[in-house]
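User: Sequence for Dihydrodipicolinate synthase family protein below. Tokens please.
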Amino acid sequence: MKYQKTNFNGLIAAGFSPFHRDGSVNVKVIPALVDDLIKKGITGFYLMGSTGEGLLLKIADRIRITEAYIEAIDGRVPVIVNVSHSSYAISNDLTRHAVETGADGVSATLQSYYPITSLNQLIYGIEKIADSQDSIPFIYYHIPGKTGLNFKMHLLLDELGTRLPQLGGIKFTSPELNDFMLCSQLHGDRYQMLFGVDELFLPALAMGADTFIGSTYNFMPAVYQNIIQEYGRGNQQEANENYFKAIRVIDTFLQYDGLAAQKAIMKMIGYDFGDPKSPVLPLSSQNYDQLYAELEKLGFFHELKTTLKR
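Assistant: Structure tokens for Dihydrodipicolinate synthase family protein:
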């Protein structure tokens, strides 16, 4: 067993996948964004998840995008690669590729077409993926809004105990903060809880979360950095004000399709990652212009030009 625990922390950006107009992969846009985000304090990247459209891509495209990100990151911050697939065998192949390419962690949901109705089934599936390597942490991706797998994560960790050394923690993308708290308090000495609901950032921070994975960290990391800083200084009002800025932006783009709107925002700020893959549809030109105007009214583009408070 070569596995050693890896500690992730801070703001981990969920990476977007870049495409040309014809749908082919466009890796040229990746290095500049990676450099920019690392300079702005991003402490890691999570690839091929919901934001990265991993489940909609050809395996070859997943591999190419993953390799481009890891090459651009060049060991400066940790990388977690989502290896979800309906086939355990393919998840295992993607896991081995992630390890060989230099990832610091792998992550996955389980398939949801055939019903998983018990913790035993869930644990079996986690073990089928996690046991394909023994050198980096496996992070179970809990996102019941997408998968329908509504199991309590603290009960999952109760059942697992220490029987799966590769399990490093849970990417907790659920609004059930009570379950998150139970996981953190009962199992935080063994497992990391990586919080994944951007719009609940401050409540999770107040409950002790110290590691966050999210898509909006790609385009407003300074706002979240300020929340962390002001909350840590005991400046609750200032933390609330920055949190309000974040959730106003999130509430605005969620009036459209969240993924399509965020890829549009990336284009607005100079990083054209192309259109999302079907079944997600890109914003119409009218909706693109409308979203831009709404964000401008909120001061979003002005906020991008400001520096972090010190």
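The radius of gyration is 19 Å.
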